[in-house]
C-alpha cells in the first residue's frame, strides 16, 4: 500500500534489538550467538531459563510520525520503549537517534540527550506530589539549569497548550486523572523534545476521558508535529492515533503497518483475532482503498463524481454510497494517496472486514 509517512526522513532506527532477562543474558551475544537464527536463539534462551522480553526488534520511525507499539500486557512494550531511550540497556542491537548510535553514548552524553532531546510520559503520571502544577511542569527545565524566569514563561506556554490555565497553583492530589496526565504531558513537552515517548499514558483513565485525551493529543500533534512512540494495549486507541502500528506478542514484533494494513491484511491468525472487533468504517479512510479494481483513472470519472478527502473515514461515505454513488474522486493528503475509490470496494471492506 502507498504510505507517504515512510518517505520522510528517519528519526530513530531500532536494529536487531534484544533484551533478555535471566541468569546469563549476555552470554550468547558475547559469543556471537546472535548469528543464530533469531527464533532458534530465543527458544534456546527460554530453555535455559531466560525471559527474552524483546526479540530482534527492527524498525525505522520517521520524522513527524506517530508510531504505536501495541500488544497485550507482558508482550514487551515497556521494555522495548525503554531500550529506545536506554532506560533499559539492550542485551544486543543498535538504536540510532538522529544518525548517532545511542548505545555508544557515554553516561554523561546520555543524560544530556535525555534532558534535551527526549520527552517521556508514563501511565502513572509520575508527578512530584509536593510541587504544584507550575513547578511540576517547570521541573525538567530546572534540571536543565535554565534561569527561573525562562522556566516560568516556558511552563506557562505549555500550560496553555494543554488547557490547564487557572490550575497553576494546584497540587497533583487536587486534580482529576485527566488533569494529572495533562500535567505529565505538559512537563514532557516543556523541554521541546525531538522525540516523545508515551507508555500507556491514558490507560489509567476512564473510557470517556480517554477518548477526550486522545482527541486532545491528536490536536496537539497537529500543531507540534513531533516524532512519537506511543504505547498502548488498546487496539481501538492504536487505530485512532497511529500512523503505523507495531504489534508485539511474546517479545516479537509480528507486524508493522498502517492501521488499514493491519486491519485489511493481518499477518497471521493472532493479528486477525486482535483486530476482529474493530469497526472498519471508523478506522479505514478513503485514501487507504484507492485504486479501482476495474482500472478507472481519476481523469475518466464523470465531471460530477463526488470528491472526498483521502483522510475521510469510510463511515462518512456510507450516505453517498446508499444514495447510489458508484465512484469517488479521492483528493490526496500528506498522509494518504489520492485516486479513484469505488463503492464496491467500500462495501466489501465494511461487509467482510479482512480479505
Ligand atoms: N526487570 C525485569 N526482570 C525480569 N523480567 C522482566 C523485567 N522487566 C520486564 N520483565 C519481563 O519482560 C516481559 C515484558 O514486560 P514488559 O516490557 O513490562 O511488557 P508490557 O509493557 O508489554 O506489559 C514480561 O514477561 C516481564 O515479566
Ligand atoms: Mg508496560
Describe this structure in words.
The chain has 355 residues and is of the alpha/beta class. The protein has 2 domains: 275 residues, 3-Layer(aba) Sandwich (Rossmann fold); 71 residues, no CATH class. Helices cover 35% and strands 22% of the residues. The protein has 13 helices and 13 strands. The strands form 3 sheets. It has a 6-stranded mixed β-sheet, with helices on both faces. It has a 4-stranded antiparallel β-sheet with strand order 2-1-4-5, sandwiched between helices. Helix 8 links the parallel strand 7 and strand 8. Helix 6 packs across helix 7. The longest helix is centred in the middle third of the chain and has 18 residues. The radius of gyration is 22 Å and the shape is globular. The model has no long low-confidence stretch (mean pLDDT 91). The site of adenosine-5'-diphosphate has 11 residues, from strand 2 and helix 3.
Mind summarizing the main beta sheet?
6 strands, mixed
CATH superfamily of the largest domain: P-loop containing nucleotide triphosphate hydrolases
* CATH topology call of the largest domain: Rossmann fold
The rounded Rg comes to 22 Å
Overall body shape: globular
What is the class of the largest domain in the CATH system? Alpha Beta
Class from helix and strand fractions:
alpha/beta
CATH architecture of the largest domain: 3-Layer(aba) Sandwich
Task: Output the helix-strand order.
Answer: EHHEEHEEHEHHHEHEHEEHHEHEEH
Low-confidence stretches: none
- State the helical fraction: 25-40%
Q: Work out the count of structural domains.
A: 2
Strand order of the largest sheet: 6-7-8-3-9-10
What is bound: which ligands? adenosine-5'-diphosphate, magnesium ion
Through-space gap between termini: 14 Å
Average pLDDT value?
A: 91
User: What percentage of amino acids are in beta strands?
Assistant: 15-25%
Q: How many distinct beta strands?
A: 13
Helical stretch tally: 13
